[in-house]
């Protein structure tokens, strides 16, 4: 039986944060792609990613002013329109957790919320939680 490679998309505008998370994920044998803004993310988010990390505060680029919450809504709508099962989306932010933010995450369709920098233990929890998702999902068509 062949083990499926875990494919992850990181949507993050800060190069150092990109590299740190990418390195942590690659140590776990994950295949990682990076988008630096919402425009890049929307262009590739429909590919076969098993898990998506989104930075809360993304920059405005080419007239697109879309934070991580709105980007998540867009991704969720595209999944729905194309009949793609929703992929886990983890929000990363430099801000502390409060009840308003948690509610915003839930209403946008975000599955989990972590503050940056993401520590290795939190990453392990995220991957363990969604490994079950990967094993139980049908052959992906996204």
Report the count of strand segments: 5
The CATH topology is given as Rossmann fold
CATH H-level superfamily title: Response regulator
Binned, the helix content reads 40-55%
Shape: globular
With strands numbered from the N-terminus, the spatial order across the biggest sheet is 2-1-3-4-5
Provide tags for this entry.
142 residues, 17% strand, Rossmann fold, 5 helices, disordered C terminus
Descriptive report:
The chain has helices at 15-27, 38-44, 68-82, 99-108, 120-136; strands at 7-11, 31-35, 51-55, 89-93, 112-115. Strand 4, helix 4 (99-108) and strand 5 form a beta-alpha-beta unit. The radius of gyration is 14 Å and the shape is globular. It has one domain (7-136): 3-Layer(aba) Sandwich (Rossmann fold). With 142 residues, the protein is α/β, with parallel strands linked by helices. Strands 2-1-3-4-5 form a 5-stranded parallel beta sheet, sandwiched between helices.
């Amino acid at each position: 039986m062949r083990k499926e490679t875990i494919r992850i998309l990181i949507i993050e505008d800060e190069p150092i944060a990109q590299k740190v998370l990418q390195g942590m994920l690659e140590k776990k044998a994950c295949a990682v792609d990076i988008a630096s803004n919402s425009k890049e993310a929307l262009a590739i988010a429909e590919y076969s990613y098993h898990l998506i990390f989104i930075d809360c505060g993304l920059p405005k680029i080419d007239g697109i002013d879309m934070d991580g919450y709105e980007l998540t809504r867009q991704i969720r709508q595209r999944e729905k329109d194309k009949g793609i099962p929703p992929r886990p989306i983890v929000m990363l932010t430099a801000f502390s957790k409060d009840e308003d933010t948690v509610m915003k995450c839930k209403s946008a369709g975000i599955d989990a919320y972590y503050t940056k920098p993401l520590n290795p233990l939190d990453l392990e929890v995220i991957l363990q939680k969604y490994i079950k998702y990967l094993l139980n999902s049908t052959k992906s068509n996204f």
